[in-house]
Model the fold of this input.
Amino acid sequence: MPPASTLDLDFRWLGRVDFRETLTLQENLAGKRLAGEIPDTVLLLEHQPVYTIGRTRDQSSLLNPNALPHPVVEINRGGQATYHGPGQLVGYPILDLTGFGRDLHRYLRALENTLISLCGEFAVDARRRDGLTGVWTGHRKIASLGVGVKKWISMHGFALNVCGDLDPFASIVPCGIDGVLMTNLEKETGTSLDLPSIAKAVRPHLVRELDRLRGG
Done:
């Protein structure tokens, strides 16, 4: 049996929340983490329907910006447009990356590995693709990642499609990748899944990957 983790992580399940409300919460928690007032914190939740996009002049991934079915929010992460909505597990780690090697590339790989191993728990063969950020099963994308870092405090994180409607992805080019086909864990397993259970299941996988990251 592997040794117990000594990470001081505060996991919070928020349920379904508005994106802008959660963005304000992230910013508040990031300030507190920088000041050393709180431990490393992971928010787990699902959003009301919303599109988000990084701060970039190229917004061509929004196919018809004036006719989108849901609102758009521009945020301080990398990357093109993505969709968040019910049935999608969103994870926002608010971490001081000083304790995890100060390596953004390795941090992103740790988040990908977290989701890959979680999918494996449900017998879904999930993998990364060379040169791309995110997680795929076959040619279908099941999870997206986008992070923001300021003074080595992380915000944003991952979005794993668990269940629910995938149609809103048709109004964008997800993450700017032409021809990508989105899927979710429920479709891949053929079984009914609920988000709170998946939120609990992801925790040990994330703890393990962050332990590895911390250990170098």
